[in-house]
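thought: fold this chain, then report.
action: predict
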Amino acid sequence: MLAGMEEGFLGAFPGRQPSPFLGSQAVRAGLCTAHELRTTCRAVFRNVYLSDGVTLTAKLRAQAAWLFAGPDAVLSGVSAAAVHGTNWLDPDAPAEVVRTNRHAPPGLLVHSYTLAPQDVCTIDGMRVTTPARTAFDLGRLLQHTEAIPILDALMNKTGLSPEHVWRLADANSGIRGVDRLRTALADADGGAQSPLETRTRLLLWNTGVPGLRTHIPFYDQWGLVCTTAAMGWPRRKVAVECDEERDTAGYRTWVHLHTAELESYGWTVVWVTAAMVSGQNDIAERVRQKLFSERTHVPGDRVAADQLIVGRVVDLHEGEPAGRGGSEITGSAGLAQQSRCPFG
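observation:
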């Protein structure tokens, strides 16, 4: 940051340094010279600068796009997802705005579709599409394989229910890409906490075994969530966890402790890595073997509604709660904000 800029520049995002700023305003305010602007900062868009040494993230790119496009513009798509706090976004992807002026410099996508007032909210002074409208546009405009990880991450971060997006799809059935959106929504799941979890879940659907759940909570004797499994089959007590292979100190220890904890509940744990998902390793077959081993065999009858027990929630499709001693299992998005791994 330029000398004095962090303390003195009352830009668009005060108190949120480092952030993009309008170069002309900084020079007029005497906070830097034109020479300093050229030599210590870089232009993201015309007249929109970011200090050298600051990594340009998807959110910072969105802020820069908003400064460039003007107050009448609305951040949309990937940029809106970034402002809503979505993780795992490509920092090199173009920013996206909705405005009437279609001029688009490099690094900016401009859309001119109409937004209803209820589709727009304000965050940090910026006009942004709501989470539901953001998901609506991502699902209909991006390719399927590109949209699913972002939809998963957006739903996980914001707690967005797919039903809100389905309602938008039904109300705007004539808009381009709605059929693509419906396909994307059918595959999206807010329980995923990383792109690897998304890819693993989509791969495991090929097992042909129904009942796969994501973000499965385990409860202790006081009814508090003590841990969660990334995904699995509660009835057969088979969990699938994603090894993100982080270099963070203590991560490998956490992997072993987490495995031991799930196994203490009587579950079998299968770990997968990015290389395993991308390569020839047949993860689906490995999981299928665990599911149909003698140890995990359970009767095929579905539990009746009168088997619900007061004080714990039993999934009717799975037939039994997770964990031990009255533990509880909910659906995919119910506890999406409960983090499994302290390193993620």
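thought: worth noting. The chain has three domains: 5-51, 58-187, 195-307.
final: tokens above.
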